[in-house]
Amino acid sequence: MKIARPPDGFNVLIAPNVRKLVAAFGEANPPFHRQWEAIVERLQYTGHREGVDEPRVGPGGRTAKFDLPDECGRRAIRIGYTVLGDRLTILIIG
């Protein structure tokens, strides 16, 4: 499927369960917040090209893996999201 990114990036929505996980992990590992914000901004502009198609996430579903610096407390994060119209919705992290 071809997707055209809006000029000012996708409108990024984050599922409540993902927000909870990010907040909890960020409490224990404050540097993670900076990396999370950078990942969300990156997806805003390149989410339609990042990762691979993943229909199990939902219509327009994709998954992408992002490496993290050592100070974040984990080596990488995998994100499941959908891209539909001008909206990118982050549904799963792991």
Brief digest:
With 94 residues, the protein is of the alpha+beta class.
Write the layout of secondary structure elements.
Elements: E1 11-14, H1 16-28, H2 31-46, E2 52-53, E3 61-67, E4 76-84, E5 87-93
Parallel strand pairs: 1-5
Antiparallel strand pairs: 2-3, 3-4, 4-5
Helix pairs in contact: 1-2
What would your notes on this structure say?
There is one protein chain. By secondary structure, this protein is α+β, with helices and mostly antiparallel strands. The chain has one domain (11-93): 2-Layer Sandwich (YaeB-like fold). It has two helices and five strands; from the N terminus they run E-H-H-E-E-E-E. The chain has helices spanning 16-28, 31-46; strands at residues 11-14, 52-53, 61-67, 76-84, 87-93. A five-stranded mixed beta sheet has the order 1-5-4-3-2. It is globular.
Distance between the termini: 25 Å
CATH class descriptor: Alpha Beta
CATH topology value: YaeB-like fold
As laid out across the biggest beta sheet, the strand order is 1-5-4-3-2
What is the element string, with H for helices and E for strands?
A: EHHEEEE
The coarse overall form would be globular
Poorly predicted regions are none
Radius of gyration: 13 Å
Which CATH architecture would you pick?
Answer: 2-Layer Sandwich
What number is the mean pLDDT? 92
Oligomeric state of the chains?
Answer: single chain
Summed up, the domain count is: 1
Q: How many runs of DSSP E, i.e. beta strands?
A: 5
Instruction: Work out the helix count.
Output: 2
Helix and strand content put the structural class at alpha+beta
Approximate strand percentage: 25-35%
Largest sheet: 5 strands, mixed
Helix content estimate: 25-40%
